[in-house]
Write a structure and sequence with these properties.
It is globular, with a radius of gyration of 37 Å. It is 15% helix and 46% strand. It has an 18-stranded antiparallel barrel. The chain has a two-stranded antiparallel ribbon with strand order 12-13. It is mainly β and 451 residues long.
Length: 451
């Protein structure tokens, strides 16, 4: 037994010497330490080493590869029905003075007439995309403004479908992208509501229509069949449109025809110039669908049937995200405006409205020359304040509207705004129906936002 122990001791002492004589392999020396878990004893059983080796060399079981989904499939298909909308509650108080000098001489709150309006508005939409070839979209709008009752309407309801990725269709009540103007759009004869220069980015109500879209190369061809408020097949309106990409500019060519209405043709042009985005529209029509008040004696109303009328507009926009600055300007020539002086508050106009000979739509933009411009600055000096200034003018009657506004957003979903509404002109003018007036406004939006 003593001989065996002595032999083992000599063997242990001889191992390092033998390794130095043959040259150490430092990679092999540290390989065991690297493979061992920190703080765990080295594995001594050779059977365990063979076991780990078999596990490492054994090929892992193959999992079934997930089915590949094309990018357009992932984008255009949703297994769940998507919902969303917006909500807003606003209170607006306004004090109006009939003379610019009165507020400064007689006191703000003594001579002016004050008012308070509250408005609750919301919209709710759904978007269903069961497959990439079919989609249904709908939007409902609701609003209540004291003292009127609730107004609820189906704002949009349409479906999108296609034919072999060649023809794309949209059928139902839809907002139509027809014109390119920002404040004014004389070429847009399809949507049911004209642009409001005081809210130029508000979505406008569109007609019940079927749109066919044929994209080719970098161009687009459209055909609209409009069936809004008709009860005869021949009353369906037809409106083709062609969009051509010419370098950095896009040219639009369109037409509109409906029985018992004047035929119309339109051109649009959009494109960049330095840091500006330019846009222009032109429309020609044979006659007019409006009824006009004839101010020459004896007082009467008339229509224009056999005369070629031209309307056009041009403008630009400038957006600088580094400065949080936006600028828009647009000129509008209205070929359907009155050539002579027009007063919306005249007795002739009032009598024509009461008798039903004319409608409020016939009085939209009675002048021939208009200008609108706005400038906006958000997050002034990295603060929660924003500034905006809007100017709208009718050069025909020399009336105008100026609205500077300051907005403060102290927290999310809450904002306050204050400013002035300055109307200049003579009594009966479009933007100064009561003559020169000055109004101070203060409003609050509580809980507004999208979801």
């Amino acid at each position: 037994m003593k001989r065996i122990a002595a032999a083992l001791l000599l063997l242990v002492l001889a191992l390092p010497v033998s390794a130095q004589e043959e040259g150490e392999n430092f990679g092999d020396l540290f390989e065991g330490e690297i493979l061992e878990d920190e703080g765990e004893p080295a594995v001594e059983d050779s059977g365990q080493e063979e076991l780990f080796e078999e596990e490492i060399l054994e090929e892992p079981a193959k999992e079934e590869a997930p089915e590949e989904v094309s990018p357009e499939e992932a984008f255009l298909v949703s297994e769940q029905l998507e919902w969303g909308g917006s909500f807003d509650l606003t209170f607006t108080t306004q004090v109006v003075w009939d003379d610019y000098t009165a507020p400064w001489t007689a006191g703000f709150w003594n001579e002016g007439s004050s008012s308070l309006t509250s408005k609750l508005s919301a919209d709710l939409f759904f978007d269903a995309r069961p497959d990439r070839y079919f989609r249904v979209f709908g939007k409902v709008k609701a609003a209540c403004q004291y003292p009127t009752d609730w107004e609820v309407e189906i704002f949009e309801l349409f479906s999108d479908f296609q034919f072999k990725d060649l023809l794309f269709f949209r059928a139902g009540k839809q907002t139509v992208q027809w014109g390119v103007g920002y404040f004014f759009s004389p070429a847009d004869v399809l949507n049911l509501v004209s642009i409001d220069p005081e809210e130029p980015e508000a979505q406008r109500e569109g007609p019940i229509a079927v749109k066919t879209h044929f994209p080719f190369a970098a161009h687009n061809a459209y055909l609209y069949l409009v069936a809004n408020e008709i009860d005869k097949p021949y009353e369906i309106a037809v409106a083709p449109k062609l969009e051509l990409l010419l370098g950095n500019y896009e040219l639009g060519i369109g037409a509109f025809y409906q029985a018992d209405l004047t035929p119309k043709g339109m051109l649009t042009l959009t494109g960049p110039l330095w840091d500006l985005d330019l846009f222009a529209e032109a429309m020609i029509q044979w006659g007019s669908d409006r009824t006009f008040v004839d101010f020459s004696p004896p007082p009467d109303t008339n229509t224009i049937e056999d005369e070629l009328l031209f309307s056009g507009t041009a403008g630009f926009s400038y957006i600088n995200t580094d400065w949080n600055l936006s600028l828009f300007a647009q000129y509008f020539f209205n070929g359907q405006g009155y050539k002579e002086e027009f007063s919306a508050t005249s007795i002739l106009v009032s009598n024509a409205l009461l008798s039903g000979d004319i409608t409020s739509a016939d009085l939209l933009y009675p002048g021939r020359h208009y200008l609108a411009a706005s400038v906006g600055l958000t997050e002034v000096l990295d603060s929660d304040f924003s500034l905006s200034l809007l100017y709208v003018a009718n050069f025909s009657d020399r009336s105008g509207l100026i609205t500077p506004t300051l907005t403060w957003t102290p927290i999310d979903h809450v904002s306050f705004n204050s400013g002035f509404r300055i109307s200049h002109g003579t009594y009966g003018d479009e933007y100064a129906p009561s003559g020169d007036t000055l109004a101070f406004t203060f409003g609050a939006s509580l809980g507004g936002g999208r979801f």
